[in-house]
Predict the structure.
Amino acid sequence: MRDVEVGDRLPALVKVVTTEQLVRYAGAANDYARIHYDHAHARERGFPGVIVHGLLKAAFLGQLVTEWCGPDAWVRRFSVQYRRNDFPAQPITCHGRVTATAADSVELELWTEDPERQVTTKGTATVVFGPSA
Amino acid sequence: MRVSEAIPTLTVDAATLEHVVRWSAAIDDYTPIHFDPEAAAARGMAGPVVNGPWKAALLATMLESWLDGRGTLARLDCRYRRPDLVGAALTFGGTVTAVTAATGHDVVECDVWVAGADGDKTVTGTATVHLRPASTDEETLATERLKAAVRLGQEAGRFTYEVTAGDIARFRAAVGDPGPDTVAPLTFFAALDPVERRDMLLDAEVLDEIPFAKTGGGNAFNEVEYERPIRAGDVITVVTSYTEVYERDGGSGRLLFRVRTNDLLDAAGDLVARTRMGHVMAYDLKRRVKA
């Protein structure tokens, strides 16, 4: 069991998304909603341009957690809520904080921030130390 | 109805002797302190006092007029803290303290109170209200037709997907997550969702017929609980069920939520993970776009 305390912050992870990355993610996740790659469609819907998949932001938060906890731990629970949109070329900063510790697990609070430091995604995770089934 | 929502107050400018006498007659209780000044004085009261159960009855009236036919009052408990004199101005009020879903209705818990002329609470209590689901007339979004289309509460469909190291590598490359290709990253469940993949579009036709202007929409939330990580070589059968279809007001219009769960089973039939996928669509109910 590693030395983790309530209040510990995870090293921040910064992602700058390109439209190409959105298309790659659409293919990898089999999510072809047009709002994520069709500029004209996004404008029609009232956005300045295509928007980042919520689940891609969730994937960034997942990467934040798994890089922090390392290969000797696994994530049992993970949840995210989407609060605001993010856009290509605008840095998305992923943050995490330890909110509770137990004998072999920790609870994390997770969030993404846009360049104006507005929270665009909120989440939680339960990390279990030790081997998974 | 939301937690901390205030119930519209009911006021009685003056509780009259006629109120009290009618009540006494209705329930056949002629205890004289409610209408006889001398009997009241003998008990140390400054004058006749209002019946406690009459105040409780008016709390029930307040709750019924708030519900306006949308539900029923299931329980009302009152404590009579202080007497109110006949002639006093009374205010009846309450607040929602909890809302939970039950089969066929929502259970709404409330705190209720009666305030006397000086504002002090002379009665405090709690109430339980059973609220019927939103009506299914044409103005609403979460219609019975939509619920039937997604087979709400039943299995909606099952699809089997093989997870290859190549699938994982492609997903990791797209995210920019340089982990091993043998273990799927945390959110890989998204790639195994029959609705995102458009392998299953049970509600497309019903949604397409919604006659209001769409003002937004997208995923609202995603949750996953793993029994073990998904690994390369897994053959995963995804069993999808819609668990909730509901609507409420939001900043961008009337919001229609559809929540589905996926059980991800391995080839042996063991549960690997369970996900909850919440999707929201916003509509402007004042802007009709179709007949």
In short: Chain B is about 20% helix and 40% strand.
